[in-house]
Amino acid sequence: MTVDWKSLDAPHTYLYTGPMSCAGERINRFALSLKIPANRLAFLAAPRAYFSNYSLTPAEMDLIERRDWTGLMQAGGHLQAILKIAATVGESLWHIGAHCAGMSVEQMKSACPRRRDGLPPGFP
Amino acid sequence: MAQIVGGFGISHSPSMGTEYDRGMAGRFDPRWQLWFDGLQPVKAWLAAARPDHIVIIYNDHLNHFTFDAYPTFALGVAERFPQADEGWGPRQIPELRGDPAFGWHMCEQLVRQEFDLTVCQQMRVDHGIYSWMPYLFDGPWNIPVLPLAVNMLRFPLPSPQRLQKLGVAIRNAVAAWGAGRVVVIATGGMSHQISGARFGMANEELDRRFLDRLGPDLERLVAIPQQELIRAGGTDAVELTMWYAMRAALADEVEKVYDYYTFPQITGCGVVVFEPARHSTAQR
Predict the structure, then answer these.
(1) What domains does chain B contain, in order, with CATH numbers?
(2) Which chain A residues are closer than 8 Å to B86 by Cβ?
(3) B217 Cβ under 8 Å from any chain A Cβ
(4) Predicted confidence (pLDDT) at residue B219 exceeds the cutoff of 90
(5) Among B87, B155, B195, whose Cβ lies nearest the Cβ of A100?
(6) Maximum distance among all alpha carbons in chain B?
(7) What is the pTM of this model?
(8) Is B105 assigned a catalytic role?
(9) B12 catalytic residue (yes or no)
(10) Which uninterrupted H or E stretch holds B272?
(11) I need a surface site. Which of A65, B146, B222, B239 has the fewest CB within 10 A?
């Protein structure tokens, strides 16, 4: 993927807005439920049964089961919530970042820090 | 009247906390050892500052608050602020204490200055504070803290100008408290982005210049739109705007006591310590 380092638009950057927050309400509520250890176990034991508590759509369930971190973000999931899903299934922030950038975790780890220069206009 | 004796801005990250725990078990990653060593002068400065109260401007990461009710500004008024379980279980570190009498005083004064805060009598605190706290204070942590959470997760965010005004309001509120020494801390940033294809970006030029200019050039920094800070430093660099509140709380003019910068992993990690300038009005 060619990265536009100045872009504030998807897929380069996700600025989390109110409408995204409404679109992602089910995903975020499901994801944040996984902060509780018993819920993590229940989800891992029977994902589909656990999903039924959160009114997730079939498309949302599919994104979660495929660990499509980028798709979850585009569907309104907040990174900080998606991180709880990743942690529960044994993945990390690196997996999310690598998925967003279209590279492997190892590639991302060796690419970081991805250094850029430049100051905002008017910076003292 | 109580006196603000100084303050600092400091980065936070989940790995800063977990890597501290590894370090204390004798397995410090060399990249985090640098950060640990770089913070030792801040730890010494804090001990010498002898604060009676610590005001901390920070942001939660959906670990206490959820989008069911997400406050723009929230003040924790409680006797203790337990660690939030972020999904990996609690860490073996002390618990933050609070002083409700001081908290209600600050609440009263801030609301009077038109900051209509959400008041939380229960507030679990995440790595926003717990990640750097053990680097700077030996336990038990008996100095009461006053956590003030700011929305940095979902637009609209409070503007840079609003955060500057919050700082001034904190300064006035502290001045109206009977006596004692107060340190003001802001935490967040520095350059980083943890989502999207720009994941992992780092802008050391921006970070170092920010540490250098926050003292003398607050007005010019505040004038920079948050989107432009995000464009140059990544989505999560916007957390630096919380440092404006700390800077504005201290005094019109400050002296930089110390700064340090390194880039251990995904987040630029920086710290800058200020004291009110000796001739400044806040020290009169």
Answers:
(1) 3-283 (3.40.830.10)
(2) 35, 84
(3) yes
(4) yes
(5) B195
(6) 51
(7) 0.97
(8) no
(9) no
(10) strand B269-276
(11) A65
